[in-house]
Write a structure and sequence with these properties.
Order of helices and strands of chain A: EEEEEEEEEEE
Number of strands of chain A: 11
Structural class of chain A: mainly beta
Distance between the termini of chain B: 40 Å
Oligomer: heterodimer
Largest interface: A-B, 23 and 22 residues
Low-confidence stretches of chain A: none
Order of helices and strands of chain B: EEEEEEEEEEE
Number of helices of chain A: 0
């Protein structure tokens, strides 16, 4: 069966510090991968998605970036965090072969102080 | 920008009642629709998906889709306190899921 791992679960970082969040998927090949952010009490905002190794599509301009160095690995990064980067970051995957929705990781709650 | 609209709630229903959650969308070309449940502090989990006009039932949950009117709804029968959560509507748009802001449901014991 397929599983998605996301870490860390919580993170407190000072303004201006770098960020690296990692997500990996097991039990499937060639997944579509996604990074979403959810601000407190708000909906899910799509940040990046990838349909293949090295391919990244950005949905919103910001100081975040994403990379997909391996088929089942998706990384979210920032060189310098802003207070507004605080939120709940969710990685998700979907299959290219069906349209049964996304499966989310457990999320990372980031607080920038 | 493709949009998905949901009433933020909270929608409060007594235990055992039917909870009705609604969602409207702006993109007439959308073909696939999804309902997710999100407990406080947790990640969303998929409840149901629906592609065709009409009703789709799965246990206590029924999804309803009306493409002509551009709305999708979720009915929860025999609501339980454990159903208290935020329910997110989403539609598929070219490799991406676009989410509504969610409706908070409270089931009173």
């Amino acid at each position: 069966s397929q599983t998605i791992h996301q870490w860390p679960a919580t993170l407190v970082q000072p303004v201006g510090s770098p960020l690296s969040l990692e997500c990996t998927v097991e039990g499937t090949s060639n997944p579509n991968l996604y990074w979403y952010r959810q601000a407190a009490g708000r909906g899910l905002q799509l940040l990046f998605y990838s349909v293949g190794i090295g391919q990244i599509s950005s949905e919103v301009p910001q100081n975040l970036s994403a990379s997909r160095p391996q088929d089942r690995q998706f990384i979210l990064s920032s060189k310098k965090l802003l207070l507004s980067d605080s939120g709940f970051y969710l990685c998700a995957w979907s299959s290219r072969d069906d349209d049964y929705g996304y499966t989310f990781g457990s999320g990372t709650r980031l607080t920038v102080v | 920008q493709k949009e998905v609209e949901q009433n933020s709630g909270p929608l409060s229903v007594p235990e055992g009642a039917i909870a009705s959650l609604n969602c409207t969308y702006s993109d007439r070309g959308s073909q696939s629709f999804f309902w997710y449940r999100q407990y406080s502090g947790k990640s969303p989990e998929l409840i149901m998906f629906i592609y065709s006009n009409g009703d789709k039932e799965d246990g206590r949950f029924t999804a309803q889709l009306n493409k002509a009117s551009q709305y999708v709804s979720l009915l929860i029968r025999d609501s339980q306190p454990s159903d208290s959560a935020t329910y997110l509507c989403a539609l598929d748009s070219s490799y991406k899921l676009i989410f509504g802001s969610g409706t908070r449901l409270l089931v009173r014991p």
